[in-house]
Amino acid sequence: MRRLIAAVVLSVLTFGGTVACGGDDGDVVTKPKTKSPASKDGSKSAKPDGGGEAPDPGKARVGDTVSLQGLKRGSRIDATVEDFVDRAKSANAVLEPAAGKKWVAARLKLVNKGAKVYEDAPSNGAQVADKTGRRFPATLGEITAGPAMATPVKIPPGEAARGWLTFEVPQDSAVTSVQWTPDSGFAADTGQWQVG
């Protein structure tokens, strides 16, 4: 009986580790598949703290599209951070950032390039990083910039979903990048965009 339990536990850990880590083929994708006209001249590159280093022209920025492999075979998503707001304003008088915090937000567009319906809760796979290396997950928040990304989404092949993802960060945080990973953060590929 102990051998059977050990075998079951080992197979669960092995399979679970493969799914959670996305296997060995995963990558943080920073090279854009396509560059938007706005990103070519840098007009969409947010500078939340008014300074910092110049963006790397070889890395994806606001307006650029990256192509990401999903968790399921044949699943491919073209993801674009279309806009970024450093101080997002709440559209709800009840829900506000906590004391000493602010909201930042990224408008994400997802295009299903696979042959089957793509289902996801996009906010689960999103995070931002600041210049000190701190990372912050998406949070609930209605903002005046526009409607939130739906959760869950079911995107038929060739169609898109678009909406804002909100993040709560310290007031003094200078966000430098947005990351998004398909399949609620479990896919192998992660897209990354410079925003500061």
Q: The biggest beta sheet, please?
A: 9 strands, mixed
Gap between N and C termini: 57 Å
The secondary-structure element order is HEHEEEEEEEEEE
What is the CATH class?
Answer: Mainly Beta
Would you write up a description of this structure?
With 196 residues, the chain is mainly beta. The protein has a single domain (27-194), classed as Immunoglobulin-like, CATH 2.60.40.1240. The protein is 12% helix and 35% strand. Strands 1-11-10-6-7-9-4-3-2 form a nine-stranded mixed sheet, with no helix packed on it. It has a two-stranded antiparallel sheet with strand order 5-8. Mean pLDDT is 82; it is low at 1-24 and 39-52.
Jot down its keywords.
196 residues, mainly beta, Immunoglobulin-like, 9-stranded mixed sheet, two-stranded antiparallel sheet, 11 strands, 12% helix, 35% strand, disordered N terminus
